[in-house]
Amino acid sequence: NANLTVTNGAYYLYVIDGLTNNAVITLASDGNLTAMYCTGPETLAGTGQIHMAGTVPSVDYLYTSGSVTNGAAQTIHGAGQIYGDSANPLVNLGTISADISNQTLAVQYFANPGRVLGVNGGNLSLLGFTNSGTVSVSGGGSLTANTFTNTGTMRISGGTLQLQGPWANSGVISGDVSAIYLGGTFSTAAATNIIHTGGSTIT
Fold first, then answer.
1. Residue 58, burial from CB neighbour count under 10 angstroms (0-12, 13-18, 19+)
2. Are 28 and 4 in contact (CB under 8 A)?
3. Beta-carbon neighbour count of residue 50 at 10 Å?
4. Helix (H, G, I), strand (E, B), or coil: what is residue 106?
5. Closest by CA position to 25, among listed 52, 47, 65, 61
6. Which range has highest mean pLDDT (26-30, 46-50, 159-163)?
7. What is this structure's pTM?
8. Residue 151 belongs to what H/E stretch?
9. What distance in Å separates the CA atoms of residue 1 and residue 161, rounded to the nearest whole number?
10. Residue 119 contacts residue 139 (beta carbons within 8 Å)
């Protein structure tokens, strides 16, 4: 239950057979790869945080391999890279949040029954995911979603919204933005459930 900082260039903090975290684990890169590696099957349990907070956040990494679940009360936040396993995607029951202004949190290969957020001007870049929960960006950040299936809610207020790759949507995608950019391969039915408000256009 004590705070732990993974310092610049420490490479990997390994988590095997699960973790109950009621404190703060900080990844603190200032230019060299600084990473946490979770090997499943396991759950990141507890009420704590994994804070990706280096001064060069693009090299703060969280890797998951095998079946790994982010527990309902656990928060992963900051900026950097989260890599799930394409064969066994990271399951997010808790919160993943891009909360550093003008920085990007990239998340790949995951299933989201929980919450994935962009706040305080943080940007979200999402690839290879299913969403049955909530993806929400506010505060002027951007949302880029590539290769996904949405049965939940995806919404953005301010910033930009770009949809790429093959994607499917039977839930709701809404944007209070100047423009929503539709790319990749999708059906007419998927586009029907997109709500644009605030004068936004769909292109």
1. middle
2. no
3. 28
4. strand
5. 52
6. 46-50
7. 0.94
8. none
9. 38
10. yes
Cα radius of gyration (the chain) = 17
Q: How far apart are CA 133 and CA 155, in angstroms?
A: 11
What residue type is 184 in one-letter code? G
For residue 26, which of 51, 3, 49 has the smallest C-alpha distance? 51
| Cβ partners under 8 Å of residue 106, min gap 6 | 80, 81, 82, 125, 126, 127
- Identify the pLDDT of residue 198: 63
Q: What is the DSSP string of 34-81?
A: EEEEEESSEEEESS-EEEE--SSGGGEEEEEESSEEE-TT-EEEESEE
pLDDT tens digits, one per residue of 88-127: 999 999 999 999 999 999 999 999 999 999 999 999 999 9
| Strand 194-196 versus strand 115-118 pairing type | unpaired
User: What is the C-alpha to C-alpha distance for residues 80 and 22, in angstroms, rounded to an integer?
Assistant: 22
- Among 107, 131, 114, 110, smallest CA distance to 52 is for 107
Q: Pick from 148, 88, 164: which is nearest to 116 by CA? A: 148
